[in-house]
Amino acid sequence: MKDIRVTRHPSGLTVVTASSAQMASVSLGLWVGVGGRHEPAELNGAAHFLEHMLFKGTQRRSPEQISQAVEGIGGYLNAFTSEEHTCYFCKAPHVHLRNLLDVLMDMAIEPRLAPRDIRLEREVIKEEVAMCQDDPQQQVQELINETLWPNHPLGRPLTGTVRSLTALRRRNLMEFKQRTYVAGNMVLAAAGHLRHEDLLRAADRHARRLEPGGPPPWAPAPVSQDAPRVRLFTRSTAQTQMVVAYRTCSRHDPRVYAMRLLNVILGENMSSRLFQELRERRGLVYYVQSQISFFHDTGTFDVTLGLDTANLPAALRLVLATLRKIAEAPPPRGEMARARDFVLGQMALSLENTEHQMNWLGEQWLGLGRIIPPAQVQRKLEAVTPRDLQAAARDFFQPDRLSVALVSPLKSPRPVEQVIRRG
């Protein structure tokens, strides 16, 4: 990814591009620095609800016309909401960049937010909530968030709850949008066959219509915990779904590079220690994978397992033992090299795609306030030593950072608590 340029428009909107003349496509994303963690309890689900509503028509376009404007030129349009960001993105042949820009900015600046559409979409999102509750894998993810971040926005479901959705009104959505969809809290990110100056000129008339303002406030994540936490939701299922999670560091912490490699060694792929030990050698689980998440002020390392309930104590003992082992002894250099090559290879393959390049630009600018070139990320990863991984594991894999959530036919969390107590 080359030729990265950043310009701050006088309105406050930031325009970030990565130009590649050999590409046939262009990907464009409108990023807003607002997500689930910016919602007060009474507005839980507002960011996600608003994301849905922007597709329901503008003053100039019906919902069908929004879709046709992008799909009719061979492109696609979508969006997502996370804890800290909302992104509306599209991709099409590069000659249609202005069309894509016009659609995204029209959605963001003049959404219709018609009362009837809000009523209908509320019911659609309630069905989405019900679908998540019907899926034990989804349900356990929401349960681990509640356990990690009790009484905090990071612990609430991004979709909201049936109760919060029922209470949300048009004025709530409009006020939420007016506070957060402001020029200083938005990034226009584009990658592919384009010229930075052309996008900047095309964006000028739209940017001038944005309201002034900056990022919304957010509450720091709670850190007070003196012992492991265990949460059980009992339901009649054929399997137990379990997440073993530790609080880690923010995206601004230099240990993120060690954590990236640690994640690969422990559970990200089929070569990992957890997959090989729990599934391949012992057959204790059907599914095991680890993942990392980083936020403004905190982060998590999670191990997710799907397994027969009878195997739960043995599997949990092995997970804890595997994490303890890497905290006690650094990984061999060969294992480190394979993990690093995996990360670098995945990054290189991803960045062949203009959509992934656009995501790189938007996430980094909103999350870090700067763009870290892939070559610099590679140097940072290459500088990580086995001792760095051991130190990160020792820092984070501590009992006062541990939370466990289960969706299971178990009637009591006692078997899990006993394994944790015995270490």
Topology of this structure?
Layout: E1 4-8, E2 14-19, E3 25-32, H1 46-53, H2 63-71, E4 76-81, E5 86-93, H3 97-109, H4 115-134, H5 136-148, H6 162-167, H7 170-180, E6 186-192, H8 196-207, E7 229-234, E8 240-247, H9 256-268, H10 273-281, E9 287-294, E10 299-307, H11 312-328, H12 333-350, H13 354-368, H14 374-383, H15 386-396, E11 402-408, H16 414-422
Parallel strand pairs: 2-6, 7-11
Antiparallel strand pairs: 1-2, 3-5, 3-6, 4-5, 8-10, 8-11, 9-10
Helix pairs in contact: 1-7, 3-8, 9-12, 9-15, 10-11, 11-15, 11-16, 12-14
Q: Just name the CATH architecture of the largest domain.
A: 2-Layer Sandwich
Largest sheet: 6 strands, mixed
User: How much is the average pLDDT?
Assistant: 96
- Can you tell me the CATH class of the largest domain? Alpha Beta
* Approximate helicity band: 40-55%
Give the beta-strand count: 11
> What is the ordering of alpha helices and beta strands?
EEEHHEEHHHHHEHEEHHEEHHHHHEH
Strand order of the largest sheet: 1-2-6-3-5-4
Number of helices: 16
User: Span between N and C termini?
Assistant: 46 Å
- Kindly report the CATH topology of the largest domain: Cytochrome Bc1 Complex, Chain A, domain 1
Output the structural class: alpha+beta
Strand content: 15-25%
Radius of gyration: 23 Å
The CATH H-level superfamily of the largest domain is Metalloenzyme, LuxS/M16 peptidase-like
